[in-house]
Design brief:
single chain; about 100 residues; mainly beta; 2 helices; 8 strands; globular
Length: about 100
């Protein structure tokens, strides 16, 4: 598995695998991407931990709501370096704070 942290209020969009953009017809499924109930707090901002399958190489992320705020100029970003479990644990251990969200079933 691979991991990445994503700011609260952002979501993922397109996904790339070794052959290019993820093709749900070829794979016969969507890529496995799950937001875990664990996050970090850095400079007052929450970053949620996401888990993705090894076949995923890059992920496009974007804000859930479009904004015209000049202080937040990015409309989308491509995450090209996903981290492994050791890196995720290291980030969690060095964070200013950790947030845990209870899963409701």
């Amino acid at each position: 598995m691979k991991y990445f942290f994503l700011s609260d209020g952002w979501t993922y969009a397109r996904v790339w695998e070794f052959g290019g953009l993820w093709d749900e017809i070829s794979w016969r499924r969507k890529p496995y991407i799950e937001r875990l109930p664990l996050g970090i707090i850095e400079k007052g901002e929450i970053f949620w931990l996401y888990q993705v399958e090894d076949a995923v190489l890059m992920v496009e992320v974007k804000p859930i709501r479009e904004t015209s705020d000049p202080a937040k100029p990015f409309g989308q970003v491509i995450l090209k370096r996903l981290i492994d479990a050791d890196d995720a644990i290291e980030r969690l251990s060095e964070a200013e704070g950790i947030i845990h969200q209870l899963i409701k079933e």
